[in-house]
Design brief:
mainly beta, globular, 4-stranded antiparallel β-sheet, 3-stranded antiparallel β-sheet
Length: 165
Amino acid sequence: ISADSTKRSYSYAQPFASAPLLFSQVVTTNEGSAVTTRHANLSATGFRLEVEEEEAATGGHAEETVHYVAIQSGSGVLESGGNIASGASGDEVSHRWSTLSFGGSYSNAIFLSAMQTTDGGDTANVRYRNLSSTGVEVTVDEEQSANAEIKHTKEIVGWLRLTLP
């Protein structure tokens, strides 16, 4: 999709049974500023997305190409013999570290995460640490170009865990 600093609505090619988890990434460099993507209003048929620059930037951001993956919450076995699981936190992850549990023990995990909401207005993304076989710690990490304040309201964080055989 093409996106800029205006929050726009996008539709999935096919609707889901319920709102999926959304993971997105800017894949072009049409302007030199650092950016992240922010999601809002996820539904079974679509979502809203914007490209968000650092807080100190003014004037918006040029259109960029954004790739995304939308996936239902759940778990399953991969054809390769590994497995996949995805889910979301409650509306509870803030600037303080929170623990997400995988509901089992898995080794060789690959972990992805993204905010599913835009409850806080400051530019931010998800960071994680202490990835283990049973869970991970996540936090909403605010960008600080405009000020040193890093307190962020609670957001929903979607996660995807892949394990290799």
